[in-house]
Amino acid sequence: MAIDRRFLLAGTTAVAASAALPRIVQAQVAGPFVLPALPYTTNVLAPHIDGKTMDLHYDSHHRGYVMNLNASLKDYPSVAAMGLHEILSKLGEMPEAIRVAVRNYGGAHANHSMFWEVMGPGGGNPNGELFAAITRDFGGVHTLKGRFNDAGLRIFGTGWVMVTVTRDGKLALETSPNQDTPIMDGKQVLFGNDVWEHAYYLSYQNRRADYLKAWWNVVNWNKIAQRYAAAKAGTLTI
Ligand code: MN
């Protein structure tokens, strides 16, 4: 009961707090998808990402995406029984009535779940096999960061800048509009950054280039190395 009340209250807050949330009625559907726990508190990425931005981004935006995804699957139990990765990789097979909702909210759920996971306080640098792959495929970490930031800056409107990885461990830079994910094209996402204005506007306003540059200070390379190993093993799902 306590959980239900919290869910309801949080949903109300989500609608009130964010003008950028999709304007569909947020039905109170408690599943099948859930907001994943953050692996850190929302204030630890400051000053690079401020706590207020993290609070809103995680607890309002991401929660809203999950709620809307669940609501869109309410009358589609066979789709609701599928995992997120399967839904996204079979987007073309989704019932037409929910395909756009699944694309937007399912993509958003996958993208944000990945995003929280690849960040953390402390920064650091890639090493070992991941460092070798970055050197081979981008010419070095510095070059990767430069190309990644340039690609993120060029996205018009909303979207994501990502690094994808094949089962052979080959890396590539990709951008996707809105909440699309390379998973929809059968690819694996190693890591990525959110360039929707809600990700940075409170601290950076229109200075997206500054946000993209600062973001590297909160990238968790150890986690990305784990995702790299999982991608090669074929067990990376989001
Ligand atoms: Mn976002």
Write the layout of secondary structure elements.
Elements: H1 2-17, H2 51-72, H3 77-80, H4 84-89, H5 96-117, H6 128-138, H7 141-154, E1 159-165, E2 171-177, E3 188-194, H8 201-204, H9 208-215, H10 221-233
Antiparallel strand pairs: 1-2, 1-3
The protein binds manganese (II) ion (MN).
Written description of the protein model:
With 238 residues, this protein is mainly α. It folds into two domains: 100 residues, Helix Hairpins, CATH 1.10.287; 106 residues, minor pseudopilin epsh fold, CATH 3.55.40.20. The protein has ten helices and three strands; from the N terminus they run H-H-H-H-H-H-H-E-E-E-H-H-H. Strands 2-1-3 form a three-stranded antiparallel beta sheet, with helices on both faces. The longest helix is centred in the N-terminal third of the chain and has 22 residues. The N terminus is likely disordered. It binds manganese (II) ion. The site of manganese (II) ion has 7 residues, from helix 2.
